[in-house]
Structures are given as C-alpha cells and as structure tokens.
Amino acid sequence: MLSGKSALVTGASRGIGRAIALELAKQGANVAVNYAGSEDKAQAVVEEIKQFGVKSFKIQANVADEKETKAMVKEVVSEFDSVDILVNNAGINRDNLIMRMKEDEFDQVIDTNLKGVFQCIKAVSRQMMKQRGGRIINVSSVVGVSGNAGQANYTAAKAGVIGLTKSTAKEFASRNILVNAVAPGFITTDMTDELTHEQKEGMLSMIPLEKLGEPEDVARVVRFLASEDAKYITGQTINIDGGMVM
Ligand code: NAD
C-alpha cells in the first residue's frame, strides 16, 4: 500500500507514535523514527521496523526547535531521497487547574504540541513542494474539540493543531500536499497510565463503545490518511474515540 514511500514519525519511540511507525512500515514505507527521550527504545522500534523489509533509522530532535527539525528533515531526505509522509505525533501534557498552572507548564505544552507541529510542517514544506506531493497527518485530541478541565494548556494546543491543519491544507493543496488530523480519545499508553483509577473509570463511562482505544486503532487511521484511498481528503480531523465526542 505504501511501498516506495518514505515517512517521518515524530515521538515514535513508544505509544501511539511507535504503533504508527510500525503500521506504515508494515505497508511498505521506509520510516524515520524521531525521538526525544530513550535512544534504546527508539533503536528497538527501528529493529522492529526493519523486520518488515524496509529501511529505518532513528533520529533525535526536539520538535519545537527550528534548527533541529530542519536538520532532521535534511537527514531523512538524504537517507530516503524524499519525505512523502510526515506524522506529527510528539506530544506532552502538564495538567493543572488554570489557577495553579505555572507559566512554564503552559509554555512547554504549547511549544511541543503546537509549535512543534508548525516547525515540522515548515521543515518538510520545501521538499514536499518540490516533490509536488505529500501527506501530513497531525495528532490532535478530542479534548481539542470538547475542552477538558485541568488541561487548558493541552486543549489550547490541540485545538490549535486543528486550525493549523486547516490552514496548511489550504496553503498546500495546489501542490497536492494533503494535510489532515486525527483526534484520539482515550488511548492506553504511558501518557494515560498516569491517570488515576477513578479518572479512567470516569472516562470509560463517557465512551459509547464501552472500551478504551489501543495505539493501533489510531495507527490504522493514519495509514489510511497516508494512502491513495484518502487522495480526496484534506483539512479534516477524524475522531478516534469510540464515539466519546459527537
Ligand atoms: P507518549 O507520552 O507515550 O508518547 C509521546 C512521545 O512524544 C514520547 O516518545 C516522547 O518522548 C515524545 N516527545 C515528547 N516531547 C517531544 C519533543 N519535544 N520532541 C520530540 N519528541 C517528543 O504519549 P502517547 O499517548 O503515545 O501520545 C502520542 C500523541 O497522541 C501525543 O501528541 C498525544 O497528545 C496524543 N494523544 C494521546 C491520547 C491518549 O489517550 N494517549 C489521546 C489524544 C491524543
């Protein structure tokens, strides 16, 4: 399905990013694994990817840093000759009530989750324009649509990602660069492991499908958006949330 394509997935050493990287590789894409934290985990993902018979390498970069993202994309193009698919998955949360939220907690989340998406889009833009084609898939969140108490920083960033997706889709459409977002609901990863049992039960009670999502549920939709089957879709956000927000 994606044979001969090259992909860059940010924050791909674990969780949803890892599942997306593996899914794209399973469909034949060469995949660059961006990471910020554990090099060993990133290398383990690279080894898993190679088992699908495609090329892969890991690359450390802070998605919020202009120089690092530029260098990252340069390396992807030098290794793979193109960058056909960019998945902006890297993200953090620093939850707190607004009255208690420190400026730093707000800034860190906006930097990584919103500015990071902008930096990576900007970094691939020239190459994708030159190629006259590409797919950009941004990982937002349903709380970017619905809001969530205790997550003003995170929800503002994720709502921003939806706006950024639409503006980029309009700017890049004439070059056949399609830009979409996915908005996961409650997906079981290290990020959600931090929630208390009560918080998890509370979430579960709001999900019509009565179960939590798996990283692979998100990865399969990203794979669809990266594929030829999605060639007439741009500027959209697809909720992957078991019906939680509708
Ligand atoms: P996770 O914490 O397991 O993974 C996030 C990854 O991003 C980590 O590998 C981390 O090292 C990386 N990262 C963080 N800051 C970075 C930076 N500055 N530069 C590069 N990499 C960086 O979380 P996850 O649950 O797999 O989340 C992945 C994405 O999905 C995030 O954008 C998150 O906001 C979003 N999301 C998750 C859920 C959920 O329920 N898990 C729901 C909605 C949206």
Describe this structure in words.
- The structure is a single chain.
- With 246 residues, this protein is of the alpha/beta class.
- The protein has a single domain (6-240), classed as 3-Layer(aba) Sandwich (Rossmann fold).
- The chain is 48% helix and 15% strand.
- The two termini are 31 Å apart.
Distance between the termini: 31 Å
Provide the helix percentage. 40-55%
Number of discrete helical segments: 9
- How many domain regions? 1
Q: How would you write the strand order of the largest sheet?
A: 3-2-1-4-5-6-7
- What ligands does this structure carry? nicotinamide-adenine-dinucleotide
Pathway: Lipid metabolism; fatty acid biosynthesis
Subunit structure: Homotetramer.
Binding site for NADP(+): 11-14, 62-63, 89, 154-158, 187
Function: Catalyzes the NADPH-dependent reduction of beta-ketoacyl-ACP substrates to beta-hydroxyacyl-ACP products, the first reductive step in the elongation cycle of fatty acid biosynthesis.
Give a short summary of the structure.
The protein has nine helices and seven strands. With 246 residues, it is of the alpha/beta class.
Features:
alpha/beta; binds nicotinamide-adenine-dinucleotide; Rossmann fold; 48% helix; 246 residues; lipid biosynthesis; single chain
